[in-house]
Amino acid sequence: MQSDDIYSMSDRILITYASRTGSTAGVAEAIGRSLRKQGTSVDVLPMSAVHDLDTYRAVVAGSAIQNKQWLPEALQFVQSQRLMLARKPFAAFLVCLTLALRNGETYRPFVADFLAPVRRQVPTVSEGLFAGVLDVSKLPSFGDRLKFRISVALGVWKEGDHRDWGAVQAWSEQLLPMLN
Ligand SMILES: Cc1cc2nc3c(=O)[nH]c(=O)nc-3n(C[C@H](O)[C@H](O)[C@H](O)COP(=O)(O)O)c2cc1C
């Protein structure tokens, strides 16, 4: 590493996220709070507000899952920044409803596969898989509201906030050493 690099690289960690109805933003904020408590300088930003990755020594990126994938803008972020991200410790997380199903934990390997397109772009030092929120009234699309109302009535999905803050905290605690 050249001396210029040493001076330009700050000690900050970026936590960046893509979220449609806010639950992933909440998880990103919780990860940020936990890393700060562990004594690190952290910025928590939506991906749309990230302009310069150069100033961060490590990046944690997360997205809500729709149709078994990260949101398109999140995949686009990793694709377009892959060279820069590959030079830093990079961790990824997702927020989805599959883990909130009855026996949701048995789907963990299936849910881990949702991150395969991310991992193919940039190697990850750690991956967090979290249950999210279903509030049908908050969904912007009429079609999605209808689809989810039917599947809630059929007992497929359960409405509510299924985020497990203990799991988010536990992941954040093991994360910091991996970002060094
Ligand atoms: C249109 C749509 C498609 C979704 N597809 C999936 C899916 O394929 N698998 C899954 O586990 N959860 C799926 N979800 C659930 C979301 O991942 C979950 O509600 C998450 O908490 C949303 O995050 P956000 O509030 O940050 O947008 C879907 C939600 C919506 C609205």
What's this, in brief?
The chain is α/β, with parallel strands linked by helices and 180 residues long. It is built from eight helices and eight strands.
**Helix-residue proportion:** 25-40%
- Total beta strands: 8
**H/E topology pattern:** HEHEEEHHEHHEEHEH
Shape estimate: globular
Enumerate how many helices there are, as a single number. 8
- Structural class, please? alpha/beta
Question: Main beta sheet: strand number and arrangement?
Answer: 6 strands, mixed
Low-pLDDT residue spans? 1-8
Radius of gyration: 17 Å
Distance between the termini: 16 Å
pLDDT average, as an integer? Answer: 94
- What molecules are bound to this protein? flavin mononucleotide
Strand content: 15-25%
Summarize the structure in words.
With 180 residues, the protein is an alpha/beta fold. Helix content is 39%, strand content 23%. It has 8 helices and 8 strands. The strands form 2 sheets. Strands 1, 2, 3, 4, 5 and 6 form a 6-stranded mixed sheet that branches. It has a two-stranded antiparallel ribbon with strand order 7-8. Helix 2 packs across helix 8 (165-178). The longest helix has 15 residues, at 23-37. Residues 1-8 have low confidence and may be disordered. Flavin mononucleotide (FMN) binds next to helix 2, strand 3, strand 5 and strand 7.
